[in-house]
Write a structure and sequence with these properties.
mainly alpha; 0% strand
């Protein structure tokens, strides 16, 4: 009975959190048509929550007063500060996860198609809106772009790279018995080397993407001029795939092709998946932000050696790094939906285990060299 109550309560809370988040997105969405979509999504999730609430009460459970989860509050804050588009990939992933979770619950069978439909809708909104705004994408997207296509994930993993790599580097030289000044020098050198490497990689990646996008758009422009009928066919198929019947899709495609500039913009977005307004963002902004993200994580294990020495500095460095690892693990739950405590502690344990091994290896090397 307790397990059943917990299941119903978890479902109710998940739907209430989704409804609350969609309502906030509707408030901050500047496009009135998209805002209306978010309002309808919020209403749908509220109806789902009502279903689970009624089931819980019928089973003899207690319906608590709803309070948004940490995850919902964080996503809402990010949407307010950085724009609704930033959280769209995460929301689409959440809806897909919810539909999978309901598959194992017989009384939720009717909600599975709805959740799948929500996930598909959000994916289409993310594509047709051009995805994350160019300046935000440039600031937050990095070498981890392919990991879920999520700019927020890239920011978290960028800071994680800096923290984990420099924490292990510092612990290794500390274990070898290097002087306090030597450890600081090594730590700051590792910070600069890693941050510069990350920034350079980002600049090359984004600049190469921009050049590729420019070439693709140029090619598309030539095709519009030389073979407009083929482009009309392509647009027709795209709009049919999105749910329009063939006559409506063809009529819309024809109307768009009557204006070459509109046609190029539409084909770039719908066929190529490119936002011609920003072409993936500024390479320099991406490089600078990647540098700062990496450095923000890498500085944590070095700071204690500025004020302390010996084993005291080692311990404080480990504690400070562990706090950073826990924060990163907690941030990852924005994408995974796992409990904050479990994800945070897992990150801490893995990071500390790696640092302990590095410290031990450094100590053995140091003893052998000294001997």
């Amino acid at each position: 009975m307790i397990a059943e109550h917990n299941r119903l309560l978890d479902n109710w809370q998940e739907e209430k959190n989704s409804a609350a988040l969609y309502a906030i997105l509707a408030e901050h969405e500047t496009n009135p048509h998209l805002a209306e979509v978010y309002r309808r999504l919020a209403e749908a999730e509220e109806k789902h929550a009502t279903i689970w609430g009624e089931k819980l009460l019928a089973a003899g459970g207690v319906l608590p007063e709803f309070a948004p989860s940490w995850r919902t509050k964080t996503l809402a804050w990010l949407a307010k500060k950085l724009g609704v588009e930033v959280v769209l990939p995460t929301l689409a992933s959440n809806e897909k996860t919810n539909s999978h979770a309901y598959l194992s619950q017989p009384d939720a069978a009717g909600l599975v198609p709805v959740e799948r439909s929500h996930a598909f809708l959000l994916q289409q909104m993310n594509k047709t809106s051009g995805g994350v705004a160019g300046d935000v994408l440039a600031k937050m997207e990095g070498r981890h772009r392919s990991a879920g296509g999520n700019a927020l994930r890239a920011a978290v993993l960028g800071a994680s790279d800096g923290l984990v790599s420099n924490f292990n580097l510092v612990m290794g030289v500390a274990g070898a018995g290097m002087s306090n000044a030597g450890i600081m020098l090594t730590g700051f050198a590792g910070l600069l080397a890693g941050a510069i490497s990350m920034a350079l990689g980002e600049w090359i990646s984004v600049q190469s993407s921009r050049e590729l996008y420019e070439k693709q758009i140029s090619t598309e422009q030539e095709e519009i001029a030389m073979a407009p009928e083929e482009e009309i066919e392509e647009l027709t198929l795209i709009y049919q795939a999105r749910g329009l019947d063939e006559p409506s899709a063809r009529s819309l495609a024809q109307a768009l092709m009557d204006n070459p500039e509109t046609a190029l913009d539409t084909l770039a977005r719908d066929e190529l998946g490119i936002n011609p307004e920003d072409l993936g963002g500024s390479a320099w902004e991406a490089a600078i932000t990647s540098f700062l993200l990496f450095a923000a994580g890498a500085i944590l294990p070095v700071i204690p050696y500025v004020f302390f020495a010996g084993m005291t500095a080692v311990i404080i460095s480990a504690v400070l790094s562990a706090a950073g690892l826990f924060t990163i693990g907690a941030a990852i739950t924005l994408f995974t939906g796992k409990p904050v405590l479990i994800s945070g502690l897992r990150q801490v344990l893995i990071g500390l285990a790696a640092a302990a091994a590095t410290y031990l290896i450094g100590h053995l090397i140091g003893v052998n060299i000294a001997g």
